[in-house]
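quick one before i forget lol
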Amino acid sequence: MRITQAKTDLEVITLWLHGKAKSTAFNYIQAVQQFLDFTGKPLNECFYEDMVNYLKMLSMKGYKPSTQRTKLTAIKSLYSFCTRLGYLPFNIAAQIPNIKVNDSPRLKAINKDVISLLVKEAVSKRDKLIIKSLYLLGLRVSELINLRWSDFHIINGLVELEVIGKGQKPRTVLVPKDLYQDLLSIKAHKEYIFVSWQNQTLLHRSTVNKMLRILCDRLHIKRINPHAFRHSHATHALASGCDLSLLQQSLGHADIATTQKYLSVREGEGSSTYLNV
């Protein structure tokens, strides 16, 4: 049964992207456009073999398995959406197995000493606070660059930050008072917390990536992307005894199973050590 008036791929893709976060929509449209350019066909003329050959092409061009999985996830999402709306009669993408990637978040955590070194050696106070905010608040870079001063609220002596996450879902994050005071000391814009020094405009995520890349190269350490600080926040918080449900709340995970991925094996310990008769 067809439940959409969309008559072209562009129209149905626009419907599919509606409501998605800007960063997600950008990555999804890039993946779908690359797939359609590769096949040279509209969605309704693509076959199972087209998708298999597309994935082979990605592998031959050296795309990382994690990148291949991200692109496949986007295409699967679109085909599933088109099938549910009746725009397409079959979901050929459902027959393609997901790409397995050994990407346990624990393996992506940054050593605490390295984080301290990055903060110490950052060239400006703004850059230091970008790193500290990513780590201490567990923010995504897209969330960080969109933070406004109006997002802070002082309630019963506690500093709370309202963060708009994926899918425009709000969550509240508790902010250490020292971090809040440090942020106030660099206030240079009446609306946004982090801005470009040159023209006082909203900071771009590429600026954060570039800052970290240059800093890591200068320190002769492996390059670190902004999301690694979020992984580190989760891993280190749980290792220090943070409650799993509290971490889920702070990170804004819809499913606690996502948060559970950060649980690590504690060698030399077992549940039996906590019991006696």
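fyi The chain has two domains: 9-95, 106-260.
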